[in-house]
Amino acid sequence: MKTILKKEFQQMIDGRRTSALLICIRSESEQLLIAESLARIALPIPKERSYKVYPDVFGIWPENIEGKNIKIDQIHEFIRKTQLKPFVALSKVGIIISAEKMTKEAQSALLKTLEEPPPNTYLILTCSSKSKILDTIVSRSKVFESFDYSDQVIDLDTIKKIINYNIVDRFIFIEEFLKKTSQDKQEQIIAIDSFLENLLTYFRKQLTRRRGKETKVLEIVNLIDKTRIAIEKNVNKRLALENLVLNLPLRGIDYDR
Question: Does the residue 184 lie in any domain?
């Protein structure tokens, strides 16, 4: 999801389209990391500086929540800050972490701002589940959902096993992988993106380990990139992935040996 989300956010910035994002991820720490990465895409925040104290970032963080709920007065203050002009950069970013903790009154108070964000203002709401957010907020936001894909995630250890599969077993793997993720189109794209990211990580590591085989490894890295681009352009996912695994090194020339 991270790659897709960052690309979409970058497109929003490039097109100067102010909008509200609702990002649904179970882990609050992961919510914070994603919010930070998006804020740094939108604003020239120095690497050594906390994004939370940058003048053009404002928000409601976990440490600001008194008790269990985000109250309406906090939302009123958040809305007030959306109306201010940027202090340093050309735009500003407003963030609410764990937005499901807003009371119904607080959520309702935020509706108009989400529907028509002020110019040069990007609003990022994160939550553990959109089921805990008012439908009227969901409908006014661009929603990105993560999901529990522990059964589908392809980690680096699994990548190493795939390298040692024969062609038939690789095709069987792709068929089963796509079946497991076929219920939701967005979830499938996220799972495929995760698989390709880990595959890239594996082969990039080989560039530093396998002297004399750099050209072959680079060919595979380029093929993975081309596969990602092809899938983003809505080519047949199964054919694209089968072509990819068909061209991965076979048992006996495993770069990890």
Answer: yes
Identify the residue with better confidence: 77 or 20. 77
| The overall pTM is greater than 0.70 | no
Contact present, 42 and 91 (Cβ < 8 Å): yes
Q: Dump pLDDT digits (tens) for 14-67.
A: 776 667 899 988 788 889 989 999 999 999 999 889 999 999 999 999 998 888
Q: Give the dihedral of Cα atoms 15, 16, 19, 21; nearest 10 deg.
A: 70
User: What does the angle CA 165 – CA 169 – CA 172 come to, to the nearest 5 degrees?
Assistant: 140
Please state, in angstroms and as integers, the Cα–Cα distance from residue 143 to each residue in 4, 76, 162, 170, following that order: 12, 23, 33, 34
Domain residue limits at 42: 2-145
Q: Provide the token pair at 90.
A: 């050309």
Higher-scoring residue by pLDDT: 240, 159: 240
Segments in 20-153 forming alpha helices (H):
28-42, 72-82, 104-115, 135-139
- Asked if 178 and 58 touch (Cβ cutoff 8 Å), the reply is no
Please state, in angstroms and rounded to a whole number, the distance separating the CA atoms of residues 58 and 16. Answer: 19
What does the alpha-carbon distance between residue 224 and residue 194 come to, in Å, rounded to a whole number?
12
pLDDT for position 179: 81
Shared domain for 140 and 190, answered yes or no, is no
Cβ–Cβ contacts within 10 Å for residue 172, how many?
Answer: 12
Q: Residue type for 164, please?
A: N
